[in-house]
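[step 3/7] inverse_fold.run input=structure_tokens len=228
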């Protein structure tokens, strides 16, 4: 449905609109992450891994996040997943979106555990729908999503949500071994996000493993030449 926004545009403008759409949806994903932070009931598994690395090694949380992110990019390349404009947009715009909503702070803080859990669950649906919205641009995924899709292509008999759950359980175990903080939100993220992804992708009739993504070199050539 959303692909109609750029489907019939000339090649250059097709890519530009897809990039703008990807950036916009990354802000949407940033809102989902903001909700997780606002819920304050535990790190998602990948964030817990960042914390675990910062505990075990003499590095900051931010340095751990960058190191792990770059390592995943290398693994994605080894698994033949393209790195494209979507990957770069993910690296920049999700954080900007999260900071933007943190500045606006549209969701008031609450001490109710039930409310915190509901906020966290809402964030899972927002993140899953955001994944759908940016993946349809076919400009490549963020490092962790690309890794999930790469593993999913090699495990075609199970759903992409189940693949995500398996990866998250492994990441959670490593994080726990490193001394990371594990909370209710961590558990909800590990076992809930994959389930929500399956629901969301099925409702949108979307299979991320079928998307043929474009690498950054191809996108740049199309924008410069206005030719496919």
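[step 3/7] decode complete -> sequence:
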């Amino acid at each position: 449905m959303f692909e109609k926004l750029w489907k019939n545009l000339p090649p250059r403008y097709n890519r530009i609109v897809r990039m703008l759409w990807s950036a916009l949806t990354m802000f949407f994903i940033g809102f989902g992450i903001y909700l997780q932070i606002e819920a304050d009931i535990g790190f998602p598994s990948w964030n817990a891994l960042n914390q675990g690395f910062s505990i075990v090694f003499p590095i900051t949380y931010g340095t751990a996040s960058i190191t792990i992110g770059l390592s995943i990019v290398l693994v994605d390349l080894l698994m033949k997943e393209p790195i494209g404009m979507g990957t770069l947009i993910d690296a920049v715009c999700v954080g900007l979106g999260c900071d933007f909503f943190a500045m606006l702070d549209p969701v008031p803080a609450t001490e109710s555990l039930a409310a915190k859990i509901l906020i966290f669950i809402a964030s899972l649906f927002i993140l899953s729908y955001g994944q759908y919205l940016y993946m349809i641009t076919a400009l490549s995924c963020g490092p962790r999503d690309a890794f999930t899709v790469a593993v999913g292509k090699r495990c075609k008999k199970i759903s992409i949500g189940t693949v995500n759950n398996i990866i998250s359980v492994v990441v959670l175990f490593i994080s726990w071994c490193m001394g990371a903080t594990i909370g209710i939100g961590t558990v909800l993220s590990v076992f809930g996000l994959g389930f929500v992804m399956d629901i969301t992708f099925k409702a949108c009739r979307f299979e991320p493993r079928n998307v043929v993504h474009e690498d950054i070199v191809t996108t740049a050539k199309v924008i410069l030449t206005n030719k496919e």
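[step 4/7] annotate
The chain has one domain: 2-225.
The mean pLDDT is 92.
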